[in-house]
């Protein structure tokens, strides 16, 4: 039976364009050899997804210029450029030209990786909804700020490493999701930069994910507390606790105190615990879901923070250090959430269970939850992997723990990754 190109026969061009839009441009171009019908389909795809490694540099410039010149009236919904920003930072004006070209053609999604951006005299991105900036070199801090603030309908912003920027300023009236990753090793590349400043002015922000391992200042202007916050900082970021760090902590803690969904790494928990020794933590009255990454001292810190979460319903604990301090339950008052609201608890462990399970921090956490959570319905314990005999031994041990909630079911699982 003769093979037939049923896809191109049955589907109109605009559907084929949408299909090819999901592919990298180099793969989209390859479809031109399928048949006569496919030969020029890729040229009408409303987007570019290009990686420098697939071209010689001059060939890449020529390809982009020719593609953009094919039909200057056609729409381009997305642009992704992945180059080497440090090598081509002198070509910033070229990238500006390409960005300007797609702006006039309705670009909605912009992803820039390892590119260089010159200062803009003026820029307007009236339809841009998502922007990803990964290892982007900017000629000035103002260029980054202007790129963001000139996107009036921007909804999602992701920043991972920016070069030549000491203070990141995010000013947007439309932004609802912000994710930012600035690691220590990234700052090490900036020889004159040891810490980075962050200014957020985004009144409609709903989701915030910050992984910043050295920041010198945090300014929050016209920002309501987002519904969902995920924060990671480096160990000792707020040490020593002094008037300056207390001011930053006070601003930050007050800001997140109205969130409903919160994720913290152990360094954040340590900082909040240190803060609580000088000033009481505010009540996180709206918080219903909490996720904490556990490390060496978190067992004794956790109850202090839980005491500020009176309406917590769901708790996730990620355990990475398995020789932690024994949990101190000799508190004068038990966290309110354990008595009236906490319903679901999940403990994730990276431990490979051995036969010596009696000293595992995970079992101490299970004992604490079962013995003090009055209305908990489900407690789930997830390990990477364990032998059947060790699973049986742990199950037997857990079943012997007293349970305050008669309705609580305990589940044990392995291989959660």
From TrEMBL:
Top-level division of the source organism's lineage: Eukaryota
All residue ranges annotated as the FBD domain in the record: 336-413
UniProt xrefs under SUPFAM superfamilies: F-box domain (SSF81383), RNI-like (SSF52047)
Record-annotated F-box domain positions: 11-50
Transmembrane segments: none
Protein name per the record: F-box domain-containing protein
Organism placement in taxonomy: Eukaryota, Viridiplantae, Streptophyta, Embryophyta, Tracheophyta
